[in-house]
Write a structure and sequence with these properties.
With 275 residues, this protein is α+β, with helices and mostly antiparallel strands. It has seven helices and 13 strands. The protein has a single domain, classed as Jelly Rolls. The radius of gyration is 17 Å and the shape is globular.
């Protein structure tokens, strides 16, 4: 079975040894350098998938073509001070790392990524978003069950994600969970900008997500997991003493319609593919 056939069958594809440990280490080192250089005064943006409507702000909505920083929900105490050092208070960094930083650009458009895109028939796909997901030991929070296509809506659906394990991902430190063939399901919601300002989740299908058949995708450092945009997936809190850093990029077909009220807006003339 080819990579494309396996991906079409399961809705995800696990590719072990996709990146070398040295490539993963370079990305993590660069992420920490960027984080430690962040002046967070006045920008306590918190990221939670299920509650983004409440926490989205101008900083979040303007992050599509920038390198921005987002805190864990419990990073601050009652007085507004960080409970930990800056790096270990952050949940993620996004959303244009792949275009604005040379280390992340090289990782996102590596020779093996170009070959994988070719194998999957993604000649017309562009990289619309990237995220460094930190998932610190004892701190990294839960990511609720969701479909990536809800956040990168196109007509027709074309969202495909690539999730890179920069460290070993286990049940204890918050690996991904998904269901084989779980992508054969409707898109439940669309996260978009409201005309009156801010954002909203618009319900597209009232059927609740089924947790039946969900399995943990425990993988080693250097693994790439390809995710269909309709595949429901989630991760649990990191309860271990080991961090679970990951990097993710999301792609869309540039030939598909990308609505102007999607939360993430880029000048599409500047958005590139894997070349």
């Amino acid at each position: 079975m080819t990579k494309l056939q396996q991906f079409q069958k399961d809705g995800y594809l696990v590719l072990e040894g996709f990146n070398t440990p040295e490539e993963c280490d370079a990305v993590m080192k660069r992420g920490e350098e960027l984080a430690n250089g962040f002046d967070y005064e006045g920008h306590p943006s918190v990221f939670q998938t299920a509650q983004q409507t409440r926490t989205s702000d101008d900083y979040f909505l303007a992050s599509g073509d920038k390198i921005s920083f987002f805190f864990e929900k419990d990073a601050f105490d009652a007085s507004g001070n960080l409970k930990n050092d800056l790096f270990h208070s952050l949940n993620k960094v996004g959303h244009a790392l792949h275009d604005l930083d040379p280390v992340f650009n090289a990782f996102s458009r590596s020779p093996q990524m170009k070959q994988l895109a070719k194998d999957l028939g993604l000649d017309t796909h562009i990289i619309i978003q990237s995220m460094l997901i930190l998932k610190h030991a004892k701190i990294g929070g839960e990511v609720d069950i969701h479909q990536d296509a809800a956040f990168l809506y196109t007509e027709p659906n074309s969202c495909i994600g690539f999730w890179f394990a920069l460290e070993d991902a286990t049940i204890e430190n918050g690996c991904l969970w998904a269901k084989p063939a779980g992508h054969i399901t409707p898109l439940r919601s669309w996260f978009r900008k409201k005309e009156s300002g801010g954002t909203e989740f618009v319900e597209l299908d009232a059927e609740p997500f089924s947790m039946e058949g969900m399995i943990p995708l425990e993988v080693k450092k250097g693994t790439c997991i390809v995710l269909n945009g309709l595949l429901p997936h989630y991760s649990l809190p990191n309860t271990s003493g080991r961090s679970r850093q990951a990097y993710a990029i999301h792609t869309i077909n540039w030939e598909a319609h990308y609505p102007g009220n999607n939360w993430l807006q880029r000048d599409m003339r500047e958005v590139k593919g894997f070349s």
